[in-house]
Design a protein that fits this description.
The protein has about 240 residues and is α+β, with helices and mostly antiparallel strands. The protein has one domain (about 5-235). About 25% of the residues lie in helices and about 25% in strands. The strands form two sheets. Strands 1, 2, 3, 4, 5, 8, 9, 10 and 11 form a nine-stranded mixed β-sheet that branches. Helix 7 (about 210-225) links the parallel strand 10 and strand 11 (about 230-235). The longest helix is centred in the first third of the chain and has 16 residues, at about 55-70.
């Protein structure tokens, strides 16, 4: 049992054999094969502006706690929650035993790209690093609900209910010594961790709406890069039975 899986901010699925998926455009897929590294994006540059933020009730409770601290003559140390977001990096997957039509449309809108698939258990073992946490994202109503306080990872592992369809599994790594002010001037938009696709992936699925030449191109590309993996056209490609 990995100690990092016991972290209270990172819920674990009951079934570790469930499939996990990552939907990628072709350049990101090529980069993964060539570098054999997983890319983790800095959380403050993700498209959702609420990433790493507090719910309204969490914010109100925090303000009350800070006011009490000021009244008692206490000093407030450390960066703001907004500034702290610059020191955390994430890599996101979807947990589901089935493909998602919505995810194809969202992450591969030009009818291209691929979905890489493994299991949750394999994803855990493939990131065998106690500094890389992994768990399920929780979804809340940010206007009326709260999540626990007292740990900087709680805001990172909660999102608004509007994103519930993503069923997200999140890998999280903190920048070392994230309380240090010099870390906040870090210009990097992300970091990478070693990750061999040939060892850790179960299968590659090509976009169901791609043309046949695109499917063949992806096959030839993988062969030329000498990566031995199963490649299929997406399960959504099957013709209906009338």
């Amino acid at each position: 049992m990995y100690k990092r899986l016991e972290h209270p901010c990172f819920p674990q699925p009951e079934n570790k054999q469930m499939k996990v998926w990552r939907y990628l455009d072709l350049p990101k897929f090529i980069n993964l094969l060539m570098t054999q590294k997983l890319y983790l994006s800095r959380i403050d540059i993700l498209s959702d502006l609420y990433e790493g933020s507090l719910t309204r009730k969490n914010f109100a409770n925090k303000e009350i706690e800070l006011e009490r601290l000021r009244e008692n003559g206490g000093k407030i140390h450390g960066p703001t929650n907004q500034k702290m977001r610059e020191s955390f990096y994430v890599n996101c997957w979807r947990i589901d035993n089935n493909e998602s039509e919505a995810m194809w449309k969202l992450y591969c809108p030009q009818n291209d790209g691929v979905a890489i698939q493994t299991t949750y258990e394999n994803l855990v073992s493939s990131t065998d690093n106690e500094e890389v946490y992994i768990g399920l994202v929780n979804y809340l109503d940010y206007d009326s609900e709260t999540f626990p306080s007292g740990n900087v990872y709680y805001p990172l592992m909660h999102k608004r209910k509007a994103f519930e369809h993503e069923k997200e599994v999140r890998l999280v790594k903190a920048k070392s010594d994230y309380w240090s002010e010099e870390e906040f001037d870090n210009p990097d938009f992300g970091l990478t961790i070693n990750w061999n696709p040939a060892l850790h992936l179960k299968k590659i699925y090509v976009n169901p709406y791609a043309s046949s030449w695109y499917f063949e191109t992806v096959n030839e590309l993988v062969k030329k890069l000498d990566v031995k993996m199963d490649i299929e056209w997406s399960n959504l490609k099957a013709e209906p039975l009338y």
